[in-house]
Amino acid sequence: MRVLYLLLLTLGLLFSQLATGVNLLTGLGQRSDHYRCVKKGGTCNFSPCPLFNRIEGTCYGGKAKCCIR
Question: pTM for this one?
Answer without folding.
Answer: 0.56
